[in-house]
Design brief:
By secondary structure, the protein is α+β, with helices and mostly antiparallel strands. Helix content is 43%, strand content 23%. The strands form seven sheets. A six-stranded antiparallel beta sheet has the order 2-1-11-10-7-8, with no helix packed on it. A six-stranded antiparallel beta sheet has the order 12-15-16-17-13-14, with helices on both faces. A hairpin with a 2-residue loop joins strand 10 and strand 11. Helix 2 runs parallel beside helix 6 and helix 3 packs antiparallel against helix 6. The chain starts with a strand and ends with a strand.
C-alpha cells in the first residue's frame, strides 16, 4: 500500500493512499489537506493509480507542484516511485510504497532477499553460510512431508527452530472472513494468543514485518496487542498467486532478545519456500485423487465391457440350441408345433435385439410406416397358435385401410409379450374378439377378453419397448386397449434427462461429477453462486462445494429461497463437521466431508433421491386423504338440504299431482342424490395403480 507522510512540528503524519485523491488546502474537497498553509492552493494536486502505477498531477496551482525539486509540467502527470518527495508550496510530503517512518531495526518490513541484506563484512559471510545451511536443512525436512497437514505442522516447527522463537502460530484465512489457527507450538499459555491487528496488517500490505517493540509499533493497535506483552515478533504472509491464504507468526517473550533485519529476511525466504512446498503438496494430493478417480472409472469401464462381452457370448451360445429346436419343431403336430415355432421365433427376435444393444456403435433403427393389415396378420398368426392350444377362438374384426408408425425394433414381439400371458390363462371354449378404433392420432386395437382375467403385468423389457415405440395400453372392463401412433408426430418426445447442478469455482471437480452424473443418468450443469433467473429447468439435485464457494451459507440460502430450488435436495461437499449445523440451518439437506470418493457421492445422491420420493408419496397420500375428507363433508352438507327439498317436493306432488314441473324437480333431486353417492364412494374406495406409475380412485 502507498503512503503520503509529512511532518507537523516533530510529529510524523501519515495518510494511506487507497484510491485516487486530491491534495490542497480545502479539507472538504481534498482527502489530504493543510488548511493553515497559505502557499497551498485550495485544490493543489491529485494522485491517481493508472495501470498499477501511482501518478501525480498539478491542478493549475498558484505556486506549482515540485517532484524531487523539479516542477511538474506534464499535463498527464508524472509517475511516482518509492521515496519521492513532493513540494506543494511550503508543504513537503514523501511518497512511500510501504509504511513510512520505520527505522529498519526496531521496526522493519519489505526487506530484500538474503544476499541483499548481508553487510559486506567477513563476519557476515559466516552468518550467511550458517543461515543457508539451516535454511537448506529445514527445507529438506519440509519437502519430505507428503501430506499437506503434516507439512503445515513441519513448516511452523522448522521456522521456530530456525529462528529460536519462543512461540509460533500458523493461521489460515477462514471462508467467512478472519483467521483460524491451524497449528501452534512453543510456550503457548492458555488465553494468550497473537495479535489480530498484526495479521490484518500483514495481509493488507502483503509484506513480512518485524517489530522489536510491539506496544510502541505505529503500524499495529488493538486490545489484543496490549494484552500480548511480547518482546519481539516476526510475521510473514503465505501467498498463492497473489492471494493470501495464511500467515506464519513467531515471537520472543524477552525484550533483550530482539530479531534482526537479517532474521526477517531469513524468515521471509523460508515462508516463501514453505508456501510453494505447501502448494505443491496440495496439487500433488489433488493429482493423486484425480488419478484414483480416473483409475476407478477405468476399472468400472473395463468391468462393464467384460460383462458386456460375456453377455454377448451367452446370447450367441443360446442361438444354436434355439435353431436346433426350430428344426425339430417342424415335425410336431399342427397345433403344438405352430405354437412352439411361434415362441421360438419370438426368442430369436429377442436374441437379435439383445445382440444389437450390446454393440458399442448400436444405433436405434429408423422408423417406417406399417399397414394395419400387415400388423394384424402377424399378430393373428401368433395369437391363434396359442388359442388353438387352449381350445379357444379368436374373432377378428375387419381391419381399416390405414397404417401406423413403426419406430423400429421388435414391436410385434413386445405386443406379444404383453398379450400372450393373458391368452395362456383362457379356458376352453372362450372367445377373444378384436375391434379397431381411432382417437387423436392413434389407432386403437381393442381386445375383449372373458371375465376372470386380471390386468396385464408386462416384464421390464416389454414395457420399455412399448414405451420407446410410443404404444400406450389401458385395461378396463375386461378389455385391453392398445394405442398405436399413426405417425411420428404422435410419438412421445424423449424425456429430458434431469439435471445435477454444481456450484463450485474449482474446475477439478467437474471430472468427478461428470462421472457421477453419467452413473445416475443425469446431465451435469455448472451454476454460479447466485441462482439463475427464471425460467429454470428442473434440477434433481444441487451440489454446493464448500471449498469452491466464497459465501457458502449465503449461497445455500439464495438457492433455497429460489422458487425453482425450494424443494430440491442440496448436498454440500468438502465441508467440515463444525460447519454442519449452520449449513443445515441455511437450507442444506446433507453434507460430505473432504476426501470423499465418487461411489460415496453417488450413493448419497441416491439416498437423497429416495428421501425425496418418499416425501412426495407422503404428500400425495396426505392430499388424497384431505380430498376424501372433503368428499365426506360435502356429502353431509348436501344431504341435509337435499332431504328437505325432497320432502317438500313429495308433499307438493301429493297436493298438485297434475303439475309436471314437480316431477322434473324430483328427477333432479334423484340425480343429485346419485352424485352424492359417488362422493361416498370416494371416501370408501381404495386406489388402483396403473402400469405407468399413476394411481386413480376406482369408482366403478
Amino acid at each position: 500500500m502507498a503512503y503520503l507522510s509529512w511532518l507537523e512540528g516533530t510529529q510524523l503524519m501519515r495518510h494511506a493512499v487507497h484510491e485516487a485523491c486530491q491534495l490542497g488546502r480545502d479539507p472538504l474537497a481534498c482527502a489530504v489537506a493543510q488548511p493553515t498553509l497559505n502557499g497551498v492552493s485550495r485544490v493543489h494536486a491529485s494522485i491517481d493509480r493508472i495501470g498499477g502505477i501511482w501518478w501525480v498531477k498539478d491542478l493549475e496551482s498558484l505556486n506549482g507542484t515540485f517532484l524531487n525539486g523539479a516542477p511538474l509540467n506534464q499535463p498527464s502527470g508524472t509517475a511516482l516511485q518509492d521515496g519521492d518527495e513532493l513540494a506543494l508550496g511550503d508543504w513537503r510530503l514523501t511518497f512511500t510504497e510501504g509504511f513510512p517512518g520505520l527505522d529498519g531495526i526496531t521496526f522493519a518490513e519489505r526487506v530484500g532477499d538474503l544476499f541483499y541484506e548481508v553487510r559486506p563484512e567477513p563476519a557476515q559471510a559466516m552468518v550467511l553460510i550458517r543461515c543457508m545451511e539451516l535454511l537448506q536443512r529445514s527445507t529438506e525436512k519440509l519437502l519430505r512431508q507428503v501430506d499437506s497437514d503434516a507439512m503445515v505442522k513441519g513448516l511452523l516447527e522448522e521456522s521456530l527452530h530456525l529462528l529460536h522463537g519462543d512461540r509460533g502460530f500458523l493461521v489460515m484465512t477462514a471462508k467467512e472472513g478472519g483467521w483460524r489457527t491451524a497449528h501452534r507450538v512453543g510456550d503457548v499459555q492458555e488465553g494468550i494468543g497473537l495479535s489480530r491487528s498484526v495479521l490484518d496488517y500483514v495481509a493488507r500490505e502483503h509484506t513480512a514485518v518485524l517489530s522489536n517493540s510491539p506496544l510502541g509499533d505505529p503500524r499495529f493497535g488493538g486490545m489484543s496487542l496490549v494484552e500480548l506483552h511480547r518482546g519481539s515478533l516476526l510475521c510473514a504472509p503465505m501467498e498463492d498467486e497473489g492471494d493470501i491464504h495464511g500467515a506464519l507468526y513467531l515471537d520472543r517473550e524477552s525484550e533483550g532478545r530482539p530479531f534482526s533485519r537479517f532474521d526477517l529476511a531469513v524468515f521471509q525466504a523460508f515462508v516463501r519456500l514453505g508456501s510453494m512446498a505447501l502448494r505443491q503438496a496440495t496439487l500433488n494430493r489433488r493429482a493423486l485423487s484425480q488419478a484414483e478417480q480416473q483409475g476407478e472409472l477405468l476399472r468400472l469401464r473395463t468391468g462393464f465391457q467384460r460383462e458386456a462381452d460375456r453377455h454377448g457370448e451367452l446370447l450367441a451360445a443360446m442361438a444354436a440350441p434355439i435353431r436346433r429346436l426350430q428344426s425339430w419343431a417342424e415335425d410336431l403336430p399342427h397345433a403344438a408345433g405352430a405354437a412352439i415355432r411361434t415362441q421360438l421365433d419370438q426368442l430369436t427376435a429377442l436374441l437379435d435385439s439383445g445382440s444389437r444393444e450390446d454393440m458399442p456403435d448400436h444405433a436405434p433403427l429408423a422408423g417406417h410406416p406399417l399397414t394395419l393389415a400387415a400388423l394384424q396378420d402377424e399378430l393373428v398368426i401368433r395369437w391363434e397358435s396359442l388359442l388353438n392350444l387352449r381350445k379357444a377362438r379368436l374373432c377378428v374384426a375387419e381391419v381399416p385401410s390405414a397404417s401406423i408408425w413403426m419406430s423400429g425394433g421388435p414391436l410385434v414381439v413386445a405386443l406379444a409379450g404383453l398379450v400372450e400371458p393373458m391368452l395362456m390363462q383362457l379356458a376352453a371354449g372362450t372367445v377373444v374378439s378384436t375391434r379397431w378404433d381411432q382417437e387423436r392420432s392413434f389407432r386403437i386395437l381393442r381386445l375383449s377378453l372373458p371375465a376372470g382375467l386380471h390386468a396385464p403385468i408386462p416384464d421390464p423389457w416389454t414395457q420399455r419397448m412399448l414405451q420407446d415405440a410410443g404404444v400406450r395400453w389401458h385395461w378396463a372392463d375386461q378389455a385391453l386397449d392398445l394405442f398405436l401412433p399413426e405417425g411420428p408426430d404422435a410419438m412421445p418426445e424423449e424425456p429430458a434427462r434431469p439435471l445435477l447442478g454444481l456450484v463450485s469455482d474449482e474446475l477439478d471437480l467437474l471430472g468427478l461429477f461428470q462421472t457421477v452424473a453419467e452413473a445416475g443418468n443425469l446431465w451435469l450443469h455448472p451454476l454460479e453462486q447466485e441462482p439463475p433467473p427464471p425460467p429454470v429447468p428442473k434440477f434433481r439435485f444441487l451440489v454446493v462445494d464448500a471449498r469452491g464457494t466464497k459465501d457458502l451459507e449465503g449461497c445455500i440460502r439464495a438457492y433455497r429461497h429460489h422458487p425453482s430450488f425450494a424443494t430440491t435436495p442440496i448436498l454440500v461437499v468438502r465441508s467440515t463437521e463444525e460447519e454442519t449445523p449452520r449449513l443445515i440451518e441455511a437450507g442444506a439437506t446433507d453434507w460430505l466431508a473432504e476426501g470423499f470418493r465418487w461411489e460415496a457421492l453417488h450413493h448419497r445422491l441416491q439416498v437423497l433421491r429416495g428421501h425425496t420420493e418418499l416425501q412426495q408419496r407422503a404428500l400425495a397420500a396426505e392430499r388424497l386423504d384431505s380430498f376424501r375428507q372433503m368428499a365426506g363433508t360435502l356429502k353431509h352438507e348436501i344431504n341435509n338440504p337435499l332431504a328437505i327439498i325432497s320432502m317438500q317436493v313429495e308433499m307438493l306432488q301429493r297436493k298438485y299431482p297434475e303439475e309436471v314441473k314437480l316431477g322434473k324437480i324430483g328427477e333432479m333431486v334423484d340425480r343429485i342424490r346419485a352424485l352424492v353417492q359417488v362422493l361416498q364412494k370416494m371416501r370408501e374406495t381404495p386406489t388402483e395403480d396403473y402400469a405407468d406409475g399413476s394411481s386413480i380412485l376406482k369408482l366403478g
